[in-house]
Design brief:
By secondary structure, the protein is of the alpha/beta class. It has 19 helices and nine strands.
Length: about 425
């Protein structure tokens, strides 16, 4: 195996502690008698366990070795794979290097582990090639990733040569992308151990809500959809601020938008207020990718002593570097103007030609003015609240009459935070729990 792995060029920058590199080293050490069979068996079992962990995380099934190799191919971001993501495969010298790598991967797909099993007296690889997951794997992994990996794995296993391998892999890159951005909808960020680089973390348990699940607010949803559709189609679009009362569906609408347009290349990166200083670095890493990114800021607000909003202002509009066309900022806030205002802000008011101007107030309002679309999610009326309750109840299969639902929903909201869509959902959850 080590002789095959040594031929890999474009995809050869795998960490030495990866499963493939470790197994390759084990095979080399076994042939050269560098360790006892007991020590090598222990190393093999360690890598098999790691492979089982990956299989559980992503729901691999049947042939775990094939699925693992496929996972390596579709998550390896190199100049060839990223170019294929953006433009597809084209004629060029780099294709020769890629096909050479795919020939090696084809050999790895067909690799016969029986000699290793016979030498060490084990049969784990035979079992891995005919693996059956137990339980409910959809509860344990990102189903979206699993389905893509397993479908491509089956095609690559059946490929007749590296040419077919090349066609299948590059076709996948063009259709879905490469790396974490190709496989996941949403991400959070953190800094690495040095504090200088940004690390993206996929959010695998994102709410599967769709816009139709949000009852009411049709005008608001239409504004959001129209702006997002223009964005994913490559037309001009605006940053969006969703503001209004709590529990009215602002955050739910953003999540639903990502679910609606994911198949058209939309991705979301969630950023918290204390991370605004990293915004420029985040944008630098995503501006050349073949996706449309929404940078999402939930419950955005600033107290008068907080100055992080200045980082946001510079990124949205006003900095020297122009915000790339594949990035928009969507934020939610309970405050219309985001930054807390006080009466002291009016101390510097000047009157010129009958106009009242305050530099402090202008400074604070300048952030919200950088959002081209502002959408108001106000608290529903009593009638709208009952409409939401009844709609959610019927969707959940509850058989209570409308009058009973209204009466009980009225009692519920009096002691549970007042009228809102969130209160309506909590009430329906309560009824479902009582059944």
């Amino acid at each position: 195996m080590n002789q095959i792995v040594s031929k890999i060029l474009m995809y050869g920058d795998m960490p030495q502690d990866s499963i493939l590199m470790q197994l390759s080293g084990i095979c080399a050490d076994l042939r050269e008698h560098k360790q006892t069979k007991e020590e090598l068996t222990k190393r093999v079992f360690r890598e098999v366990k790691r492979l089982l962990i990956v299989a559980t995380d992503y729901g691999f099934d049947k042939n775990l070795w094939h699925d693992y190799l496929t996972f390596l191919l579709i998550t390896n971001e190199n100049p060839f794979s990223i170019t294929c993501e953006k433009t597809g495969a084209h004629e060029g010298s780099v294709n020769d290097f890629a096909k050479s790598d795919f020939k090696a991967f084809k050999e790895l797909f067909d690799y016969d582990f029986r000699w290793l099993e016979q030498e060490l007296g084990i049969d784990c690889f035979t079992k891995l090639s005919n693996y059956k997951a137990i339980g409910k794997p959809e509860l344990m992994y990102n189903k979206n990733v699993s389905e893509k990996v397993r479908a491509l794995s089956d095609r690559l296993a059946a490929a007749s040569d590296q040419e077919q391998f090349f066609t299948d892999v590059t076709g996948f890159y063009k259709a879905y992308g490469v790396g974490m951005f190709g496989l996941n909808k949403a991400f959070r960020i953190s800094q690495d151990e040095t504090g200088r680089n940004i690390v993206f973390h996929p959010i695998n348990n994102m709410d599967k809500v769709m816009l139709d699940d949000l009852i009411g607010y049709e005008i608001q949803k239409k504004k959001l959809v129209d702006n997002t559709r223009a964005f994913v189609e490559g037309r001009k679009a605006n940053n969006v601020l969703l503001f209004g009362d709590s529990g009215t569906g602002k955050s739910t609408s953003i999540k639903a938008i990502v679910n609606e347009f994911y198949d058209r290349g939309l991705r979301m990166i969630e950023i918290y207020k204390h991370q605004f200083q990293d915004l420029s670095n985040v944008i630098a890493q995503i501006k050349n990718r073949n996706y449309r990114f929404i940078i999402y800021m939930d419950d955005l607000s600033f107290e008068e002593f907080e100055i992080e909003y200045k980082f946001l202002k510079a990124v949205i509009e006003g900095g020297v570097e122009t915000k790339p066309e594949n990035v928009l900022i969507y934020a939610t806030s309970n405050r219309r103007h985001i930054i807390k205002e006080t009466w002291n802000d009016r101390d510097d008011i000047k009157i010129e030609n009958g106009m009242h101007q305050s530099d402090t107030m202008e400074e604070k309002l300048s952030l919200v003015n950088r959002f081209g679309v502002t959408i108001n999610y106000s608290k529903p009326s009593q009638k709208e609240y009952f409409h939401i309750v009844i709609g959610l109840a019927r969707r959940a299969g509850l058989t209570m009459s409308d009058d009973e639902l209204r009466m009980e929903a009225n009692r519920w909201e009096l002691s549970h935070g007042g009228i809102s869509g969130r209160t309506a959902q909590q009430f329906v959850n309560y009824l479902l729990g009582c059944e």
